[in-house]
Automatic annotation (TrEMBL), chain A:
Gene3D superfamilies: 1.10.287.70, Cytochrome c oxidase, subunit III, four-helix bundle (1.20.120.80). It comes from the Bacteria. It comes from Marinobacter suaedae. It is a multi-pass membrane protein. Residues 3-295 form the Heme-copper oxidase subunit III family profile domain. The lineage of its organism: Bacteria, Pseudomonadati, Pseudomonadota, Gammaproteobacteria, Pseudomonadales. This is cytochrome-c oxidase. Signal peptide: none annotated. Belongs to the cytochrome c oxidase subunit 3 family.
UniProtKB/TrEMBL annotation, chain B:
It is found in: Cell membrane; Membrane. The chain crosses the membrane at residues 35-56, 76-97, 118-138, 158-186, 198-225, 245-269, 281-303, 309-332, 353-375, 387-411, 423-446, 466-487. It comes from Marinobacter suaedae. This is Cytochrome c oxidase subunit 1. It comes from the Bacteria. Its EC number is 7.1.1.9. Keywords: Cell membrane, Copper, Electron transport, Heme, Iron, Membrane, Metal-binding, Respiratory chain, Translocase, Transmembrane, Transmembrane helix, Transport.
Length: 295, 527
């Protein structure tokens, strides 16, 4: 409930319009790289647009967040403003949850309904008309039309690299919590150590994930084109990996800010937001480990 | 940006900046609300022009004005522009203008992000409209962009369409986060949840729906992007995927989306009917619970759009009954609006005319929705003009009349002038007649078997189509009158008092008209 304070309303800002131009150029560039590339045309101009857009986005992120950090450190924000940021971050994470829900939903749907139906379950016989002899299995190796979607040799088992990655991420969720407690206790050296440890775990995770992808492409012929298993596997783990990268980037910025002396024992929402995000990424991984790798 | 130390509380007292930078750089909720509303009306005219092309082609049987490929682009772009460019931004504009005024907040919770949410929209629609001029033409697969029409058989511009949808999604999610943070955190002291005005309640729930389903839309277009450009097989059965998967994911977004387009109108009408009945709203608490129930049910009814794709009988029955359940809370709302008017001292200024028409005509759209919800009957109606009639009855006299009612209701607060009542009533009656002429015959066309999204038709459908086209031209032309009324009202007219409607309630009527550039720098007390 609102308190009787003056709520900080910022003056005019150039960052939103800079961000719009940056995002627009970036995505227009990406789209035209794809479209021109597919039609075999030159993509030089498209890459240029993309690079300009990405540079503007980077400039905007530093500028906008820098602006917010300066405002926060000069004491313009009230506890009420802090609550706005907390609501904002919580609902942003909820939107990310729903984004992953779409891909998990797709995975469940193809596993529970689409693939068994293609295999003739429930006397539908649809695949018998189109692809005689197709057998529904999961992981689906032999696709209904192997010419369009060549089969992989095998898929990645859960108890090797994925298990290592699970241990890495769960540990990192633990270490970031230790760092948070250190921050609240005012123990800056311990905070730096444990936060740096968290980031190190994240980097190792990303390397293992990258190695796993190379292994899948080179040795197992498991690619995006391997049919629905490859599609769901790479999209789920790939988007998760991108979120790990983003989360690790956030934590790294927090570490830099901590070295610059930012944050106090009771005012450090930037750190907490990054930690929330990190826990979210961890939880998504547990879902992936169970539903993509194990079951 | 170095002048951070200068940006403290006293800037609440200065007015708007001069020139274009006021609009490009603004953090003011009223400026941003105005930009949303102007943008929305521009898109309404653009999407409306496309509707005119469609109706001109359908004026007579046979192909006379456009070729079928272009006709498909028109139906697709008309739908996309009206849904994402006209209706949704109009409600966000109303939210920006009115939420802080209604809850006694100084601005939206995150004002800079608010400006970004707006400016992403022109950017997204620039990309979307530019596809009309690309090789292979604009998207031509209908606003629902079903795979494989949009993946295997879509034009090259589909990739641009996908990124445009991503940008709209980012804009909507940020806008919704802002609305929720504002409502939960910036209410004036004493305004408990169950004292909030209904427009605030409906927007809170709408914002929740937006955050829950816009990411799912982002997910489904991303799967399309991968299928088109990177060889995945989400929607291709020969790789083990399923085109029906597209429909499931799309409609998991799509059904809550249709409530996103109507709930804020429910809220606005719940202000307007009591104001012009000079009675408090009947059943406030039940109105709140009904909106909540509608929002929750909206997540479990999506497959009623897909009865004919071959889902199991148990699924059809579940989605049929769940859909029919929605009629219960909706019925509660209609009952309450009617009960509010019952024995009230009614007067029929333009906002009330649009609100009453909203109640009657939206209910017709709701009933045709119930007919469509009956799975066995839907096998007859599916993909016919009956469906087109149904959703135009909920969107035009529902969402759009709700927006017009809101605009007339709050124009005096925004501009400080009264609009021209005679012209506004003319606008209402011409819209009312035009809209019913345009869409009512579509029910009969659909029941007789005319399919939707088709540029030519059999001769027996000719008469109703001609009536429909005449009504559509009438409705379309009438909207220019609305533009004239608003421009006149902005430039001058009878001075409006702080509370121009004697029966109106709420904090927004305690500030002067026009509302000062900054309001409620110190929150008011709510008893």
């Amino acid at each position: 409930m609102a308190q009787n304070q003056t709520y900080y309303v910022p003056e005019q800002s150039k960052w939103p319009i800079v961000a719009t131009v940056g995002l627009g150029l970036t995505l227009y560039g990406v789209a035209s790289i794809m479209v021109n590339g597919k039609q075999g045309e030159s993509t030089g101009g498209s890459w240029f647009l993309f690079m300009v857009g990405a540079a503007i986005m980077a400039y905007m992120l530093f500028g906008w967040f820098g602006n917010v950090i300066r405002e926060s450190r000069s004491g313009l924000y009230s506890p009420q403003m802090d609550r706005s940021f907390r609501w904002g971050m919580s609902w942003f994470i909820f939107s990310e949850v729903m984004f992953f829900a779409a891909f998990f939903g797709a995975l469940f749907y193809v596993r529970v309904f689409a693939v068994p139906w293609l295999g003739g379950e429930g006397d539908r016989g649809s695949s018998a008309m189109l692809w005689e002899g197709f057998e529904a299995t999961w992981p689906l190796i032999n696709n209904p039309n192997p010419e369009a979607y060549p089969p992989a040799d095998s898929v990645i088992g859960p108890w090797g690299l994925p298990l290592i990655n699970t241990i890495l991420l769960v540990t990192s969720s633990f270490t970031v919590t230790v760092a948070h407690h250190a921050l609240k206790a005012g123990n800056r050296e311990k905070l730096k150590l444990w936060l740096a440890g968290t980031i190190a775990l994240a980097v190792v995770f990303l390397f293992v994930q990258g190695y796993e992808y190379i292994h899948a492409y080179r040795d197992l012929d498991l690619t995006l084109q391997s049919g629905i298993y490859g599609s769901t596997f790479f999209m789920l783990t790939g988007f998760h990996g991108a979120h790990v990268f983003l989360g690790a980037l956030m934590l790294t910025i927090m570490l830099i800010r901590i070295y610059k002396g930012h944050f106090t024992e009771d005012n450090h929402f930037g750190f907490e937001a990054a930690a929330w995000y990190w826990h979210f990424v961890d939880v998504v991984w547990l879902g992936l480990f169970v539903f993509v790798y194990i079951i | 940006m170095s002048a951070v130390a200068d940006t403290h509380a006293q800037e609440h007292h200065h007015g708007p900046a001069k020139g274009i930078s006021r609009w490009l750089l603004t953090t003011n909720h009223k400026d941003i609300g105005t930009m949303y509303l102007v943008f929305s009306f521009a898109m309404f005219l653009l999407g409306g022009t496309m509707a005119m092309v469609i109706r001109a082609e359908l004026f007579q049987p046979g192909l006379q004005i456009v070729n079928p490929e272009f006709f498909n682009q028109m139906t697709t772009m008309h739908g996309l522009i009206m849904v994402f460019g006209a209706v949704m931004p109009a409600f966000v504009g109303l939210a920006n203008w009115m939420l802080p005024l209604m809850i006694g907040a100084p601005d939206m919770a995150l004002p800079r992000m608010n400006n970004w949410s707006f400016w992403l929209l022109p950017c997204a629609f620039l990309i979307l409209v530019s596809t009309l001029f690309m090789e292979g033409g604009a998207p031509n697969f209908g606003w629902t962009f079903y795979a494989p029409l949009s993946t295997t058989y879509g034009p090259p511009s589909t990739t641009f369409f996908i990124f445009a949808v991503h940008i709209m999604g980012i804009s909507s999610i940020m806008g919704a986060i802002n609305v929720i943070a504002t409502i939960l955190n910036l209410r004036a002291p004493g305004m408990t949840l169950m004292k909030m005005p209904l427009f605030v309640w409906t927007w809170l729930i709408t914002a929740f729906l937006l955050i829950a389903v816009m990411p799912v839309l982002a997910g489904v277009v991303t799967m399309m992007l991968m299928d088109i450009n990177f060889g995945t097989s989400f929607f291709d059965a020969s790789g083990g995927g399923d085109p029906v998967l597209f429909q499931h994911v799309f409609w998991f977004f799509g059904h809550p989306e249709v409530y996103i387009m109507i709930l804020p109108a429910f809220g606005a009408v719940s202000h307007i009917i009591p104001a012009f009945s000079r009675k408090p709203l009947f059943g406030y608490a039940s109105m709140v619970y009904a909106v909540g129930a509608i929002a929750l049910l909206s997540f479990v009814v999506w497959a009623h759009h897909m009865f004919t794709v071959g889902i199991p009988i148990a699924g059809q029955l579940f989605f049929m009954y769940a859909t029919m359940l929605i009629a219960v809370p909706t019925g509660v709302k209609v009952f309450n609006w009617v009960a509010t008017m019952f024995r009230g001292a009614l007067s029929f200024e333009a906002p009330m005319l649009f609100a009453v028409a909203f109640v009657i005509l939206f209910t017709i759209g709701g009933f045709s929705g119930l007919m469509l919800a009956i799975a066995p009957a839907d096998f007859q109606y599916h993909d016919t003009y009956f469906v087109v009639a149904h959703f135009h009855y909920v969107l035009v006299p529902g969402a759009i009349f709700g927006i017009f009612a809101s605009a007339y209701f709050w124009l005096p607060k925004w501009t400080g002038h009264m609009y021209d009542e005679t012209l506004a009533k003319t606008h209402f009656w011409l819209s009312f007649v035009g809209m019913n002429l345009a869409f009512f015959p579509m029910h009969f066309l659909g029941l007789a078997g005319m399919p939707r999204r088709i540029p030519d038709y059999a001769l027996q459908f000719a008469d109703f189509n001609m009536v429909s086209s005449v009504g559509a031209f009438m409705f379309g032309a009438t909207q220019l009158l609305f533009l004239l009324i608003v421009v006149k009202c902005v430039r001058g007219g009878k001075k409006a008092s702080a509370k121009p409607w004697d029966g109106a309630e709420g904090l927004e009527w305690t500030v002067p008209s026009p509302a000062p550039y900054h309001t409620f720098a110190t929150p008011p007390e709510v008893k």
